Amino acid sequence: MTVWTKRMTHSYSAFAGAVPAIGDGGGAILDASWRRCGDYALDPSRPGLTDLLTSVELRRSCEEAGPLLRFADPELDRLHGIVGGLEYAVLLADPAGVVLTRRTAMATERGCRRWHLWPGAIWSEQNEGTNGIGTCLAEGRAVTVHMNQHWRVGLRYLTCTAVPVHDALGRLAGALDASCIRPDSDGRESALIRMAITDSARRIESRCFMDLYRGHTIVTMGDGEGSSAPMLALDDDRRVVGATHAARLRLGLPPGDPLSFCLTESARSAEAPGFRTAEKAVIQAALTTSRGNVTVAARGLGISRSTLHRKIRALALADAES
């Protein structure tokens, strides 16, 4: 019997035939995760709880997280204030799936200890199979794993929703998770929980980004989707020196790479559709700084006044003073 067949058999026996389709609540994400679990050769019926790091190993993981923990702490408090009343624990994990810190109420403390929703617990997908933190990190996107959608049968009484958190250089820095030990059976809360977590992940990323580029001009590229807000950091010469994960995706830029380019260069602006949006944001920021004075804005951008006028018309920006 393959591990895949074994998992489906366990699901059937545990729920008397009420086996949810793999795609329910997560579609292709959960389907792909279950298939990876088969490749990992994980035994879905394995007893015991997830592994825990030693205190020394956990301290090292927290140190490696850098400023992420410092900026995440107040946001974890705020998020738990929103979802804690629904008996959710809030956890922040690093890219390896190690829980670095968490927030929980006294009423759920015992359950969190029982399930190892605890700092030092290793919730990677390779370690625990399909779960909120591990599958979110494996996919790099938000996921909800509801009860029997977990790979391990022993986790079938949990509901976990996790979203990715990115650092100031656009790299995956970890996952923000809300797990409930007494979830509603139909999972109706999950959509609302995901909205709250997504907002918190954006706030954490924004704080990291604005701290790293303190003193730079920060411009946004419109509304973002998911847990990353599209923002750019400009130096005094109006060159782009920083971009968040969402901004890098729009501009076709890889995460982690140092940046230094001018969006007002027409050749560069044609490289990707996102450059037009970014160029518009940069020019708007220059006009705002110059209080609408095109001559001053053009000087700050390093282009001629006539070129800036042409770009203002092409980008359909508001009229500015000459």
Summarize the structure.
By secondary structure, the protein is of the alpha+beta class. It has helices at 3-15, 28-40, 55-64, 68-83, 106-115, 125-128, 132-139, 190-212, 245-251, 266-269, 273-289, 294-301, 305-314, and strands at 88-93, 99-103, 143-146, 159-166, 172-180, 217-220, 231-234, 240-243.
Output the CATH class name of the largest domain: Alpha Beta
Total number of distinct structural domains:
2
Give me the oligomer status: single chain
Average pLDDT taken over every residue: 84
Distance between the termini: 77 Å
Low-confidence stretches: 10-25, 266-271
- Main sheet summary: 5 strands, antiparallel
Number of strands: 8
Question: Can you walk me through this structure?
Answer:
By secondary structure, the protein is an alpha+beta fold. It has two domains: 3-200, Beta-Lactamase (2-Layer Sandwich), CATH 3.30.450; 213-314, no CATH class. It is 44% helix and 14% strand. The protein contains 13 helices and eight strands. The protein has helices at residues 3-15, 28-40, 55-64, 68-83, 106-115, 125-128, 132-139, 190-212, 245-251, 266-269, 273-289, 294-301, 305-314; strands at 88-93, 99-103, 143-146, 159-166, 172-180, 217-220, 231-234, 240-243. The strands form two sheets. A five-stranded antiparallel β-sheet has the order 2-1-5-4-3, with helices on both faces. A three-stranded antiparallel β-sheet has the order 6-7-8, with helices on both faces. A hairpin with a 5-residue loop joins strand 7 (231-234) and strand 8 (240-243). Helix 4 packs antiparallel against helix 8 and helix 12 (294-301) packs across helix 13. The longest helix is centred in the middle third of the chain and has 23 residues, at 190-212. The N and C termini lie far apart (77 Å). Residues 10-25 and 266-271 have low confidence and may be disordered.
